[in-house]
Amino acid sequence: MAKKTKKVPRRGVSGNPARRAQAEQLLAEDTLICEICRAPLDWKTANGITSFSHPAGIKLEFEHRPMPTTGKPTPATTVCDFCGETGISASFVTAKQIVVPDVDAQGNPTGTGNGYDKRWVACARCTPLVERGNLAALLDRAAHMLGARHDLGEAQRARLRRDAKRLQEAFFEAEPTGPFPA
After folding, report:
1. Which H/E stretch holds residue 145?
2. 34-50 burial, b if ≥16 CB within 10 A, otherwise e?
3. 29-54, pLDDT tens digit by residue?
4. Domain ranges within the chain, ordered by starting residue
5. Which of 30, 77, 126, 133 is most buried, judging by how many CB atoms fall within 10 Å of its CB?
6. pTM score
7. Does residue 130 contact residue 64 with C-beta atoms inside 8 Å?
C-alpha cells in the first residue's frame, strides 16, 4: 500500500500579472501608522476591543502609546517584518488579510489574535528567502536577529521562533506577491 504524503502548501511568491497590478495599487495607498513616530502599527482584537502596538523590532526614540492614523511610514521607523533589521529593500503584498490567533501554553487558541497589514517589507537578506519560500532560514534569521536585539535566553528564543513560525506560515498561506521596490 502506498504511503500517503501530507500535502505541503507551496511557499514563495506569486508572479501573476493581475495580482502584481493589484499589489502595486495597494502599495501606493496609505497604511496604518503611528501619528507620533510615523512607524507602521500592528493591531490585536480581543472581545471586540482593538488595541494597537509598535512592531517588535522597532527602536523608538522615546516611549509612547501608539496613536493610529493612516499615512506613509518614515524609512527610519520601518523594520523588516521577518527579522526586525533596518534597511528595507523590498515590499510584498498578500492576497488575503492575515490574522494569527493567540494560543495558550498547550497550543490551543485563546479567542484573541493579532491582525497584520497586507503590505510586508523585507531587508536585503530576507528578500531572497521570502522569494524562495525558505521558512526555515527566515525563522533562523528572526530568532538570531530579534533574540540578540532583545537579549533573549534560549527558552525565550524558542518561543519567539514558534510565534514567528505561526506568523510567517500565515504570511505564505496568504499568497504573497512581490518583490516590489521598497
Report:
1. helix 135-149
2. beebbbbbbbbeeeeee
3. 777 888 888 778 877 776 777 788 88
4. 17-181
5. 126
6. 0.69
7. no
